Amino acid sequence: MKSSEFYNFIIVGAGTAGLTAAIVAARKGHSVVVLEKGAIAGPKPRGESMAHFPLLDEILGEGYLQSIAEVKPSHRVYHSPGDIKPVGDVDVHVPYYFFEWRTLINHMVEIAKDLGVIFSFNSEVIEPIEEKNICKGVKYRNSNEKNQKVFGNVILACDGYSSTIGSYYNVDYSKINCPIVKFLGNNANININKVSSPQLYFIPNGILDYAPNFPPSVAYLFPIGGKKVEAGLMLRMTQAFKMKTVKIPNEEEIMNVWENLKSRYPGFNDFFDGIETEYEELTVMPNAGLVKNFILGNGGAILIGDSAGFIDANGSSGLYFGIKMAQIWVDLISESLIDNEFDWSLENRTYLTKQFKDSKIYKTINSSYKLIGLFEWMIFKKLRKGNRINRFWKLIIWLLQVAS
Ligand SMILES: Cc1cc2nc3c(=O)[nH]c(=O)nc-3n(C[C@H](O)[C@H](O)[C@H](O)COP(=O)(O)OP(=O)(O)OC[C@H]3O[C@@H](n4cnc5c(N)ncnc54)[C@H](O)[C@@H]3O)c2cc1C
To answer: Which candidate, 75, 143, 232, 272, has a CA 20 to 30 Å from the CA of 265?
Structure first.
């Protein structure tokens, strides 16, 4: 890509949100460039399950998600602290599927390329280029370590949980990011015919004798297909910050707990017997809250997907919600692009933000944060101890069923 080119849409980040934005914008006839810091799109696996909504057929092709999925769970299975109460099955109302991350991402890149989207890999965006606090382009470092500039009408910051663009505009990601261990394994000790639903294990503060001050967490295991699983550990920091008994752990402490969970947490450890690790990483998920403003500065740049904290905190799923958010914003912007000029007046920014906040998906996410906040406050802060959570286990499962 040549320096100082101009595009209608500059998309920073080729994850699912950025790729969707690119596809939707290109289908509307816009010129689009995607800048991705990795050597490939979605360089690190981020999610292997997604609920199916009609928009996915539109973006990916009719029936595509189903075609790459082996497993379609009908419920989620919750395990009480120490796995001592009977598991709670919670029905899932929207069909969802497990699949391989790379298959999905490669498919999205192919669609975008066919539509004429320009990809620039190994291109790390360093900062926005502004005029009167309006973002007019970005500076990025290319594969030869040279700084380059690209200009555009609209910059979509789809660069994930610690967005460079968002951080430049003072978004405090430490307030919305929660640590999470991500693990992919082959040859797991699982019979997919018997266990074809995600398993979630509540781990309240104080239950682990080897880490008594560890924050409340949820360990999970997703059956992707055959003997392949995704597993992990989500720390629930929103509650941890309010709890006197909790020590905020460093990376070493988190990984130590993770190793112990795999080898000896009741029920959970069974799956790891003979497993081969394919991928393991301590990363973060921005599921502790939404950003305040989606449009940054006096306009020009918009946060989409994880960079906006746009995740369903209920199910800790962000793939679909980032995809939907990208589609809505590209539609909104396209309506306001007149003669290739964009109106970033306060009036138009307020109008666009209101349009987005009036959408069903925004309301769903906003209420999921409130609901999960209340639920976790009740479980992890009020009941807090494993034996008390176990005592109210039936009620907790009922509440989860009602909320799902
Ligand atoms: C362990 C884990 C498991 C998850 N499981 C699920 C799941 O099963 N289902 C689900 O729905 N959601 C899941 N999520 C959430 C989901 O992964 C995210 O919500 C989703 O990936 C967000 O997409 P995104 O495009 O906004 O961000 P990302 O997928 O993070 O994409 C950001 C992209 O920007 C690039 N980038 C970053 N900085 C720069 C820069 N400065 N310049 C250029 N490029 C840059 C990155 O390399 C990356 O490709 C999971 C998250 C985690 C961490």
So the answer is: 75
What is the number of the ligand 1 atom nearest to the C-alpha of 48?
Answer: 8
Q: What is the pLDDT of residue 74?
A: 82
How far apart are the CA of 46 and the centre of ligand 1, in A? 5
For residue 170, what are its two tokens?
């003072």
d(CA 207, CA 81): 8
Residue-number span of the structural domain to which 221 is assigned: 64-99+178-285+383-403
Quick check: is 366 in a domain?
A: no
Mutate which of 169, 184, 282, 319 for ligand 1? The one with the most ligand atoms within 8 Å of its CB, which is 319
In a domain, 243, yes or no: yes
pLDDT classification of 93: cutoffs 50, 70, 90: confident
> Is 59 inside any structural domain?
no
Res 1 pLDDT > 70: no
Overall pTM surpassing 0.90 (yes/no)? yes
Count the domains in the chain. Answer: 2
Instruction: Give the dihedral of Cα atoms 345, 347, 349, 354; nearest 10 deg.
Output: -170
Q: Could you tell me if 160 and 233 lie in one domain?
A: no
Give the whole-angstrom CA distance, residue 187 versus residue 176. 34
Query: Quick check: is 353 in a domain?
Result: yes
Domain with 133 in it: what CATH number? 3.50.50.60
Tell me, yes or no, whether 139 and 35 share the same domain: yes
Q: Specify the pLDDT at position 4.
A: 55
Q: What are phi and psi of 298, to 5 degrees?
A: -95, 20
Which atom of ligand 1 sits closest to the CA of residue 41? Answer: 49
Whether the Cβ atoms of residue 7 and residue 33 lie closer than 8 Å to each other: yes
Q: How confident is the model at residue 206 (pLDDT cuts 50, 70, 90)?
A: very high
